[in-house]
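Quick one, probably user error.
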């Protein structure tokens, strides 16, 4: 019999020590390595932020150039992985395709040398470089096309949009997408990061670490919520229906997607930035028909549930940004994964540097000393 207090969902229980990121949920503060997310969104870019998260400090100009160069060089994926992806069912979810493809990388880069900085760097570069290529490849393959080869002249964000649509993206679109990646790159010990850390703690390879995290991110209570937000807005259909929709959810005690957070008890700072990015895009490319519904829903939810600390989270406005960038709804979570690979890798590195395998305890609630009944004496129920 254990005398530990059981907390469902491990709420409030520290499972690690980390210097990677910090959230103050009461004040709506998010920092990566001590730097406010607002500053990174304005001044940094996704690859510089990834370097900061993984190696703990901002790179010098030479270090950043070398890092970007390595990533450009490793963007392509092996033809056997592309061929494997061609065998995936077109109707399958792109997150499942990504999980399988990330795990498949482990077949090709099987050496495991977790105490070798060269190995760590190579794995970081490969995963950051190839995950976007694999997401775009599945999208092209399921449309019946060949995967689009990465374009070396384009930066990280622009190249992904190019591989998706096979045309050079608009500069504002590429910039907004890059900021989205920065905003989603890391968020302390959330479910997928915890999953990555548990897997990492067995000292398996980083491809298995990322594959397990992708599987965890896919669920609707985590990364999958951004897809469901669009379905919610679609279902509501018009601003006039917002109040009735919300009333119905509250009566049925069903959750409104894109709201609520285990840590934030105010509006998620990333949602504030994403809303501004959405507005920038609308100014240039035209308003999204769902935006007014989203704003009305946020207002209504804040009025009804704000006193319980339920506000818009990161997933609420990200979908509207992605729609304007021409990203299909079921790629929203894979796009989240492209960004979060940086955080997962930072935690992988931190975990293996000071590792102890995760092996928590449980409170057993079943019987003891039950008698084994032979099968011919058992009754059907
Ligand atoms: N709509 C209505 N009620 C809510 C919501 C919501 N979106 N979120 C929480 N609540 C209520 C919930 O019903 C519960 O009420 P009661 O105490 O009366 O049972 C109370 O608030 C606490 O909710 P919880 O589910 O126990 O809280 P949690 O910390 O376990 O879960 C959460 C956090 C994010 C899973 C939850 O807020 C949720 O399911 N939100 C909707 C899904 C969503 O938007 N997920 C994205 C999360 S942010 C990005 C990410 O992690 O990927």
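Nope, works fine. Designed sequence:
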């Amino acid at each position: 019999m254990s005398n530990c207090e059981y907390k469902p969902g491990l709420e409030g229980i520290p499972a690690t020590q980390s210097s990677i990121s910090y959230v103050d949920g009461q004040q709506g503060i998010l920092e990566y390595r001590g730097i406010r997310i607002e500053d990174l969104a304005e001044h940094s870019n996704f690859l510089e932020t990834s370097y900061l998260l993984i190696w703990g400090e901002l790179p010098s100009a030479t270090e950043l150039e070398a890092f970007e160069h390595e990533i450009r060089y490793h963007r392509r994926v092996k033809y056997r992985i592309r061929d494997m992806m061609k065998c995936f069912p077109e109707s399958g979810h792109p997150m499942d395709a990504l999980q399988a493809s990330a795990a498949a990388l482990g077949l090709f880069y099987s050496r495991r040398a977790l105490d070798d900085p060269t190995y760590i760097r190579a794995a970081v570069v490969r995963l950051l470089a190839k995950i976007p290529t694999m997401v775009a490849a599945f999208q092209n393959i399921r449309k019946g096309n060949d995967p689009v080869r990465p374009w070396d002249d384009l930066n990280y964000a622009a190249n992904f949009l190019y591989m998706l649509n096979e045309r050079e993206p608009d500069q504002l679109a590429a910039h907004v997408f890059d900021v989205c990646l920065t905003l989603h790159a890391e968020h302390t010990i959330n479910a997928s990061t915890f999953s990555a850390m548990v897997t990492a703690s067995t000292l398996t390879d980083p491809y298995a670490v990322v594959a397990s995290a992708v599987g965890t991110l896919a669920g609707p209570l985590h990364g999958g919520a951004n897809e469901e937000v669009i379905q919610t807005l679609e279902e509501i259909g018009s601003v006039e229906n917002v109040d009735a929709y919300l009333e119905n959810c509250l009566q049925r005690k069903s959750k409104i997607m894109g709201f609520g957070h285990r840590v934030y008890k105010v509006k998620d700072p990333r949602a504030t930035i994403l809303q501004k990015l959405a507005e920038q895009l609308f100014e240039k490319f035209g308003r999204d028909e769902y935006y007014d519904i989203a704003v009305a829903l946020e207002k209504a939810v804040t009025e009804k549930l704000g006193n319980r600390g339920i506000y818009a989270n990161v997933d609420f406005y990200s979908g509207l940004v992605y729609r304007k960038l021409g990203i299909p709804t079921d790629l929203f979570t894979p796009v989240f994964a492209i960004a979060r690979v940086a955080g997962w890798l930072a935690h992988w590195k931190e975990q293996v540097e000071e590792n102890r395998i995760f092996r928590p305890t449980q409170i057993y609630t079943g019987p003891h000393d039950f008698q084994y009944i032979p099968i011919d004496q058992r009754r059907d129920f």
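The mean pLDDT is 96.
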